[in-house]
Amino acid sequence: MKSELTNGTGLSNKIALLLVEGARVPARKRNTDDWIEGEIVAKRPGDDGKQEFYIHYIDYNKRLDEWVHDDQLDINKIKLPQTKNSRPVSPTAMLNKVNRKRKIEETNGYSSSHSTNSDTDEAPPIVPPIMPAGPPSTGSLSQNQNTYDGLTRIKNVQQIEMGRARMTPWYFSPYPQGLCNLPVIYICEFCLKYLKSENCLKRHKIKCKLYHPPGNEIYRKNNISVFEIDGRKNKNYAQNLCLIAKLFLDHKTLYYDTDPFLFYVMTEYDQFGLHMVGYFSKEKESSEDYNVACILTLPCHQKKGYGRLLIEFSYLLSQVEGKLGSPEKPLSDLGLLSYRSYWSNAVLEALIQYLDSPTESPPSLTILELCDRLCMKKEDVISTLQHLNLIHYYKGQYIICLSNEIIDQHRKSMFRRKVRIDDKYLQWQPKDWSKRGKW
Questions:
Q1: What are phi and psi of 224, to 5 degrees?
Q2: 37, 228, 328, 349: which one is catalytic?
Q3: pTM: predicted TM-score of the whole model, two decimal places
Q4: Does the pLDDT of residue 309 top 60, yes or no?
Q5: Cα–Cα dist 219/233, whole Å
Q6: Greater confidence, 50 or 347?
């Protein structure tokens, strides 16, 4: 038994039986010496003859999931999957169970009539279950759907090329299966049509006359523009945008029915056109007054301040609408960091401006007044004040305390921000989407 459970480049069928989907095993990440416990999501034969396993690292974001070889697994520490009301099964007990089952089959004559390898100690080959070809093309695709959960947990696109950038996707996106088998999917950066080769993209560019997103340009300052796109009037563009977004967003549902949504695409201008750097979407009618449904900055444009600009722009629209806005929950890990940073700066800026303005002594500003100034929901303002540790209990009431150190840090941070949204350049009037005729 000990010899069967050694880590090597070749695996016997007995050991292969243990490396089933759902089993947990320490895996060595590619190009590192770190061993991290991971869950086997799927397996396949590799090009070099080795077995490959798709590993989700426990307590790590799914964008770090990857295919690893069998020699990158510590098979001596396998934890087999368990069902409800059952105990974990050890590898030794699992192999003993397989051996007992084989002996029973041989006794009943099953091996001689059905098995082609009855003269060896190898287990009968296991036929893998037939997986569905892909998710449905109608309705919504959510990571919580059980039928396609195993399929949607595996990255299916290797790379995309969009303009001058080539990006490696983080998550599953339901592109056509024929394209997913290609090393690169080529995407027109203006109309977002996906193509299978560089030659197809060149021919498409001759026909495509777009040099900016479709829809109405509602904001322009210097080289930054924002376009409002109706998901009903520009359905193909909106659906292609959702496909791209799903490559880098895992926590949201992808809607094929884009009619109820508006998309706000931020672009950067150069001599060749207006290139998309990110976007956010919002429902035309939101029962919870969410001002953002999905928000994304393309990986090739991250860490340039565009995420903060998109958030700032969404709250500017809420201000024009006269509403208190908030993003739809849950937020991704990166989305939460971006919003937490924006909320912190916005709250501190409002408090400092209030202190600098002539007012009564001592100054008095309620949470609701702060919400109205920032167009932010009450729960977001309170969580931000708690995060900054600005709320204190003093003489029977809660007060907001600002130290000189916090004020100095905030002013240095704002001095480094070179680009901000200027409401004077917004050309936009909100619509009453409750009247269905405007859809």
A1: -105, 125
A2: 328
A3: 0.79
A4: yes
A5: 20
A6: 347
